[in-house]
Write a structure and sequence with these properties.
By secondary structure, this protein is α/β, with parallel strands linked by helices. The chain folds into two domains: 244 residues, 3-Layer(aba) Sandwich (Rossmann fold); 46 residues. The protein contains twelve helices and twelve strands. The strands form three sheets. The chain has a six-stranded mixed sheet with strand order 5-6-7-3-8-9, sandwiched between helices. Strands 2-1-4 form a three-stranded antiparallel sheet. The protein starts with 6 loop residues before the first strand and ends in a 6-residue tail after the last helix. The relative contact order is 0.13. One of its GO terms (molecular function) is ATP binding.
Length: 317
Amino acid sequence: MSISNNFVIEMNHVSKDFKVLNRHEGLKGSLKDLFSRDYRILTAVNDISISINKGEIVGYLGPNGAGKSTTIKMMSGVLEPSRGEILVNGNVPYSNRTKNAENIGVVFGQRSQLWWALPLIESFKVLKDIYMIPDKEYNDITELYRSLVDIDPLLHKPVRQMSLGQRTLSDILAAFLHNPKIVFLDEPTIGLDVSMKAKIRDLIKGLNKEKHTTVILTTHDMGDVDALCQRIVIIDHGKMIYDNDMEHLKTYFGSYRTLRLNLKDVGWKEYLVDESKTDVMSIISDAQKYYTIRDIQLKEIETEEIIKKIYEGGTTA
């Protein structure tokens, strides 16, 4: 398998299977399970091929259980695929996990890579030693951090005293510290308020622009997708069902509008309307036969609705 100079990640017909025990109920069933060979094969990732360019921010999306985390673990070298090939920065990630780790950064959910009792600056110094970051590179990246976000109040604050948003921001800074070629971000803004979400999105965009770092983002927050991603990949039940840029997606759904009607004694009702097939005025006229309409809102379809439609099999765009 060859890799282009522009591709930092290539997956070629990659699948991952897990053996799952068919469990039995009750105490007798539990004892039986101890010696059981009654397994079934669960395919978590099913024949995925993808090439990701240097510097891209790619949204890797799908419902819970779709296979996103399994794919990320294979890309990061934690899991080995059952079939197919993966190259990350020209290397097989699971064959040499140490070398692969030198060129990637990872932020997984709420699992911090920082030292809980230490001030942030001490965690940075430990990571500097671990990754053998030269003094000049370390000073340059910390100055870049200062230009993107106000980190000085955090540097001498123990991680255990930080808010969730401050810890998430600090974890992202730590993931970029050794100038990795790829950073994997798993739900980076989950549980954060609107202000902190905006700050973290600006930070990710700034680091991507300055360092040309490839970012793979998994999220359920469509605000993250709209703000950060030039391209999205969607998987469901382990299979890839969409891979294209955001503009293509929105163009494909250009005839869709969201119609909201405020109906007396009912409240707001929402309709997803394909104007190539259904006239908006006909929906309003039908509603008027049964209700008094107090207000009408018509707006472009939101990314969240587009993704939902794709999950439901509404397109193979």
